[in-house]
Amino acid sequence: MKGTVMTLRTGHTGLNVTDLDRSLAFYRDTLGLVPLAESERDGRRYAFLGSGGGGEGEAPVLTLWQQADGPYDSGRAGLHHLAFAAESMDRVREYESALRAAGAEFAQASVTAHREGAASGGIFFHDPDGTRLEIYAEKGAEDAPAPDDSAPACGFF
After folding, report:
1. What is the rounded end-to-end Cα distance, in angstroms, of the chain?
2. Whose CA is closest to 153, among 105, 87, 91, 107?
3. Which of 24, 56, 65, 106 has most Cβ atoms within 10 angstroms of its Cβ?
């Protein structure tokens, strides 16, 4: 496709999980994703989750596949982290509160700017299998600390 402008965009992300029920509860109850379908094929359970804004025929945002036999391994090739965009920093902080109440493991104390002086920033945390996740907003992090060794941004957690 040399010379052609690429028009690809991310459709949905598939994650391997060790316990579908536990992961469904986390993504549904804590992050607010809506189950679109759940099934089992060849002894493997899976679920499609959406944002809840699309109604009938909504495309999935996330697919969970119960086929992992161990936690996420950040030292292996593959997914580094999955980032979700929120409409505002206030919404990021609402997710932060819900995640802390649910006992999620965080990579830093609170909202972190993406870099020194950046308006964008977010929270960096792990799902029940240790998969690295981020929820960010494009603006509102101007007064948040910049990433360093003790408060990493999206590249270093």
Report:
1. 35
2. 107
3. 24
